[in-house]
Amino acid sequence: MAAKGREHFGSGLAAVMAMAGSAIGLGNIWRFPYMVGQNGGAAFIIIYLLSAFFLSLPILLSESILGRSTHAGTFGAMEKLAPGTKWKWLGFLTVISPLVILSYYSVVGGWSIEYLIKASGSGFGEDITSLFGTFIVRPWAPLVCHTLFLLLTAVIVSAGVKSGIERFNRISLPVLFVLIVVIMVYSLKLPGSGEGVRYLLKPDFSKITPSVAAAAMGQSFFSLSLGVGTILTYSSYMKKEENILTSGVGTAAFDLLFALIAGFAIMPAVFAAGIEPGAGPGLIFETLPYIFAKMGAAAPWLSRGVSILFFLTIVIAALTSSISMCEVGVAYLVEERRMTRGKATALIFLGTWLLGALCSLSFGPLSGVKLFGKTIFDLCDYLTSNYLMTFGSLLFVLFVGWKMKKEAVREEFTNGGLLKGNARLFGFVWFLIRYVAPLVILTIFVTNLIA
Ligand code: PHE
Predict the structure, then answer these.
(1) Which residue's alpha carbon is at the smallest distance from atom 11 of ligand 1?
(2) pLDDT in tens, 178-203
(3) I need a labelling partner for 312 at 20 to 30 A (CA). Which of 4, 14, 124, 176 fits?
(4) Atom of ligand 1 nearest to the CA of 389
């Protein structure tokens, strides 16, 4: 049951900024460039673009329809639309999965804080390439940074939807775009950067296999925060008169733009330094500090400045995402368990801190603890990005496309027929939600299972 006097975002733009804030995160800066690097450059980007608009957007709209029509969090939305049915498990699942993501996400957020501190303080020192490897295996420092990151997240969320989340995103989003453009300009000016630009723009279609296509779509889900109830929850704070199509398209467009700029900020620098572009997850933590240091020989202050800005960008981008994950759990505890916002946030903090601590330690003291052949960190990442997000997305589109009445969906999508443009597009969007999205998600699911 949703509480009375529920908070709302102040305007449509505020809602887009919050959703774009959730979308723009480590996925854009950390994951996107190395996935492009490993999967055939521009060919990967083309599939990514297509899936963002024809697959991810319908899923995003489905979540928005569920959230905005019920003005309730994930659990409450299911209770309202399908009371007393098994759909409540979807409500539960999507309270739990963002919290699992938050746990390991805040470990990476913590690494970024450590790097920001290093960049602003003593710099990266001599052993720059081995720095990452030696840092993450230490027990204490990563744990302290993880705690700090999670604490920042909890403080913002506990301040409320309007005064915490909305305010933080309103300031952060423009700052993020300015920062990443500055870094891109620096990177594009490095001698030898042209090769990186060509790499991003020249498609190599021979690299496109079914599992690469599935990876591109999976990346698009992760980047748009789909299938784990964050978009649903944020949409539930949208007012009835807002247009969910424009906010959805706006969110997808901001997210895409940011990912592309981040690609052009990172790849040209990677090529300028003559480094292998498919370096994998360590790319931004191992490769970039090295590049910054190397460039630093010629212009130490400039390179120091850019590396501070770079890690600041990562920390802020990660925070705009982590608050959205935390809010899903907080909304559940406040609305369904009648807790105060402060208490709910504290509880979520404790739970995710604990799981996150295990994830953090799984690089060092707990590296021998393996489940299904994976460390705790890898297992959380693997389970959420390969299964929980796709599974949640599948259930959301099935719910909207097959469980809800077509007229109820049309009503919500067109604001009761008032939005003429949306009304004209409804047939197409309905087709994507009801048929295309479930089939493609199922295919990805099976590809992930057998790959
Ligand atoms: N979209 C975020 C990113 O790109 C990650 C995220 C996943 C956020 C799930 C919320 C929910 O980093």
Answers:
(1) 225
(2) 999 999 998 898 888 899 898 888 88
(3) 14
(4) 9
